[in-house]
């Protein structure tokens, strides 16, 4: 027989065709029928509990989840309200809830409107509503860092021409002959890195350091402020004191568990998996996850080798070729693009692997299943996306070699060092490509994949239906075709052709934004525009997600929730990592600490001479014996002649050959260049003494190291002191909400211990009744007020409107 069940929150009917195996549940089902008249009126929350128990009950190997697991039915889901085209929908007052959400929330023209969070909750339930509330809240907080990031970038662009160290690098014509970094590289002049020096200062200046400090405070405060808003929504939606629901067993666990045991709480026989079997699966999962993490680290090592190979290839080509001038950009960009492609490929395969591993672990409930999947996915994605960036930010700046160490490392090369101006520019390129590229690809995939998936599914289903009818009737008339088309337009069939809303659908949406939060906060020093790009992405992310849940996905079962759950804990972890990341980024990657040490000690409140202070002199006679000094000089003289030939045709006959074997290193012009340049001394970036002191560390190296460590400690304590003040000055639970909660507890206490109070104060009963009615009316008014098509005003950005901004 067919059973029609009314879903919670004014949902339409849900159609389920029950089999004979479900006849034992007849009494329970009849009590939930719309036409059934129970003896007692239940609230919507109680109805929700009954329906969820009916749909997920597995205590007696029954329930729709078990039937779906055993492939008795293909799907079971709540039905959407009918989505009619706007021109055929009539007046807006007659629209159903889905129509209102589609036209007044999901469309891209609504990006500057307040999200109708209460209407979303009424139609989809609290779990989905909390996601959109949190995403909108996060967007509203991103506006301030976005504006500050623009000012920081403008400050760097406008002040770069006044920065003394940068000017010294660009104006040092032949003052600094730099030592070769690898044995295939010749001498080079410092002014060749002028572009890198300018771009490094644009992202690494005093304003960007202050911006990193503010972002760290923002990271540790955003989750605290969100929990304040979360508590307010919990109270409005009556989720503050929801009872701990009895977690039902997963059908897959019941089916695969071979033993039973008596539950000490329910005193009933339940499936059971021995601890040693679970331990084996956990160890296996941990081993696979560890292998995948090591694979990501191997990919990072491969990218490093690639960059070294490309750099060596550039050093072996002719300097007059146009591509040689783009070496500082081509090498990091191509490396970052390859890294992004590998990241996306590994992400795709690991998602499948993580789900398979979690299924193999035989989790008893959906809660433990989601927690295990969250840990696996977050750990791998954290390493997958951030490993290469952390390498450039925190490890590469520590790699400094003396010119005496020119023997090849890793069988072919030694590890790559940072530029004289630092690694900030390279870090910026890596961050821009991975963050922006990942978000762009993800949004395009989400937007078009759902449409393509539904279109293909409809075509396949239509062909299957036609084939079934052809089997029954070899000759299909036009009337049959019309009937077939009409039948396919029935609401439950249309919803069946939509993409299913899986248990992990919302999980991937959270994970995407959490990873974005890391890009915004971890490396803001290297990319001040990260909050702006995140804000722009999230504006479209909300609309894309809204379109998916309203139009492209089946309607999910309304599930109650007290907030975003485990993601609050993950956000707290990310905030702590943010503080450490920014502290070490300023101390190690940035040139801020060395500049400040020089400014306040040797420089006499000036940066004049800072460049010379950071360079160490090296005597060419101390090169290893495997290095041919004459060959290095000839390579440099040849490249110098080619540079001169571009400026004057007089040198052109002496620069015709592209090969060193055809070049006369003892020609008059070559000897003239040799006489102008002192090859006896070259420079490299490090705090070391000269050859008379055997290139030992100078005292400034230790001054700078102590200053860097002191900055990390001071920075960390400063941020956490601000967080301590915020948590003590701003209540986690708003005062009005706390007052209402105390009032509720007081009334409950009076119900148990002071029932005579109402007898003595009859006016109190009427007062409480009026307050309850007013609260219900206020909630309904807020739900309706968020639906009209009105542009947001400045008052709508107040935190007291209990609606989440989606800017």
Automatic annotation (TrEMBL):
The record's section on InterPro entries has: Anoct_dimer, Anoctamin, Anoctamin_TM
Subcellular location as annotated? Cell membrane; Membrane
Q: Anoctamin transmembrane domain location, by residue?
A: 120-743
Domain named Anoctamin dimerisation: residues: 55-117
Query: Region entry Disordered: which residue ranges?
Result: 20-42
GO MF terms held by the record: chloride channel activity; protein dimerization activity
Q: Which residues form a coiled coil?
A: none
Q: Name one GO cellular component term.
A: plasma membrane
User: Which keywords, in A-to-Z order, does the entry hold?
Assistant: Cell membrane, Glycoprotein, Membrane, Transmembrane, Transmembrane helix
Membrane-spanning intervals of the chain: 128-158, 207-226, 286-309, 329-357, 378-401, 513-540, 561-588, 700-726
Q: Which superkingdom heads the taxonomic lineage of this protein's source?
A: Eukaryota
Membrane topology of this protein: Multi-pass membrane protein
- Which PANTHER family would you find in this protein's record? ANOCTAMIN
Give the family this protein belongs to, as stated in its UniProt record: Belongs to the anoctamin family.
Q: What protein name is recorded for this chain? A: Anoctamin
Q: Which organism is it from?
A: Adineta steineri
């Amino acid at each position: 027989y067919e059973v029609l069940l009314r879903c919670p929150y004014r949902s339409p009917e849900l159609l389920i065709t029950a089999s004979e195996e479900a006849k034992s549940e007849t009494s329970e089902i009849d009590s939930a029928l719309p036409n059934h008249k129970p003896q007692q009126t239940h609230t919507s929350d109680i109805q929700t509990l009954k329906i969820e128990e009916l749909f997920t009950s597995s205590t007696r190997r029954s329930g729709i989840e078990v039937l779906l697991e055993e492939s008795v039915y293909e799907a079971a889901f709540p039905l959407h309200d009918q989505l009619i085209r706007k021109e055929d929908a009539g007046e807006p007052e007659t629209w159903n809830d889905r129509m209102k959400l589609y036209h007044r929330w999901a469309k891209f023209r609504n990006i500057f409107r307040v999200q109708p969070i209460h209407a979303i909750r009424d139609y989809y339930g609290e779990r989905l509503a909390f996601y959109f509330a949190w995403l909108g809240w996060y967007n509203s907080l991103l506006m301030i860092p976005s504006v500050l990031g623009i000012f920081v970038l403008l400050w760097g662009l406008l002040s770069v021409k006044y920065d003394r160290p940068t000017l010294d690098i660009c104006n040092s014509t032949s003052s600094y002959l730099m030592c070769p970094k690898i044995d295939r590289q010749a001498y080079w002049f410092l002014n060749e890195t002028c572009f890198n020096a300018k771009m490094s200062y644009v992202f690494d200046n005093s304003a960007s350091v202050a911006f990193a400090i503010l972002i760290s405070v923002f990271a540790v405060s955003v989750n605290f402020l969100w929990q304040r808003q979360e508590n307010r929504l919990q109270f409005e939606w009556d989720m503050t004191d929801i009872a701990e629901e009895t977690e039902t067993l997963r059908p897959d666990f019941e089916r695969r568990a071979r033993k039973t045991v008596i539950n000490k709480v329910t005193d009933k026989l339940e499936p059971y998996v021995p601890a040693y079997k679970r331990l084996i699966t956990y160890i296996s999962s941990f081993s696979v996850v560890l292998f995948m993490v090591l694979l990501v680290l191997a990919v990072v090592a491969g990218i490093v080798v690639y960059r070294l190979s490309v750099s060596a290839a550039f050093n072996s080509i002719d300097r007059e070729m146009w591509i040689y001038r783009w070496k500082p950009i081509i090498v990091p960009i191509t490396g970052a693009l390859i890294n992004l492609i590998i990241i996306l490929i590994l992400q795709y395969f690991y998602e499948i692997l993580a789900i398979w591993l979690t299924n193999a672990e035989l989790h008893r409930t959906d809660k433990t299943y989601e927690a295990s999947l969250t840990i696996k996915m977050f750990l791998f994605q954290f390493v997958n996306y951030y490993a290469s960036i952390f390498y450039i930010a925190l490890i590469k700046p520590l790699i400094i070699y003396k010119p005496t160490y020119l023997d090849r490392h890793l069988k072919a090369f030694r590890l790559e060092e940072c530029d004289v101006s630092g690694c900030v520019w390279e870090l910026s390129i890596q961050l821009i490509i991975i963050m922006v590229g990942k978000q762009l690809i993800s949004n395009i995939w989400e937007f078009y994949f759902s449409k393509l998936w539904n279109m293909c599914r409809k075509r396949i289903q239509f062909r299957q239906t036609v084939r079934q009818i052809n089997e029954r009737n070899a000759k299909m008339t036009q009337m049959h075709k019309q009937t077939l088309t009409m039948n396919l337009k029935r609401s439950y069939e249309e919803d069946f052709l939509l993409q299913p809303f899986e248990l992990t659908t919302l999980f991937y949406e959270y994970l995407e934004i959490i990873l974005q939060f890391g890009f915004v906060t971890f490396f803001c020093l290297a990319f001040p525009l990260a909050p702006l790009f995140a804000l722009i992405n999230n504006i479209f992310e909300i609309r894309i997600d809204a379109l998916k849940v309203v139009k492209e996905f089946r309607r999910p079962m309304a599930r109650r929730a007290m907030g975003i759950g485990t993601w609050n804990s993950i956000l707290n972890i990310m905030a702590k990592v943010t503080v450490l990341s920014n502290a070490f980024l300023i101390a190690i990657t940035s040139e801020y600490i060395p500049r400040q040490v020089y400014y306040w000690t040797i420089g006499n409140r000036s940066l004049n001479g800072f460049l010379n202070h950071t360079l160490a002199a090296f005597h060419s006679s101390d090169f290893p014996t495997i290095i041919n000094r004459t060959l290095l000089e000839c390579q440099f003289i040849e490249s110098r002649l080619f540079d001169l030939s571009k400026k004057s045709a007089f040198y052109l006959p002496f620069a015709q050959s592209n090969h060193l074997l055809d070049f006369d290193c003892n020609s008059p012009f070559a000897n003239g260049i040799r006489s102008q340049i002192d090859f006896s001394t070259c420079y490299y970036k490090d705090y070391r003494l000269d050859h008379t002191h055997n290139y030992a560390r100078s005292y400034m190296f230790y001054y700078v190291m102590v200053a860097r460590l002191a900055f990390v400690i001071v920075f960390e304590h400063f941020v956490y002191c601000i967080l301590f003040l915020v948590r003590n000055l701003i209540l986690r639970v708003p005062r009005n909400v706390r007052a209402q909660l105390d009032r509720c507890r007081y009334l409950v206490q009076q119900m148990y211990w002071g029932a005579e109070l109402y007898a003595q104060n009859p006016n109190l009963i009427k007062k409480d009744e009026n307050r309850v009615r007013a609260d219900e009316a206020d909630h309904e008014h807020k739900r309706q007020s968020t639906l009209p098509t009105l542009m947001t005003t400045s008052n709508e950005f107040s935190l007291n409107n209990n609606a989440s901004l989606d800017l």
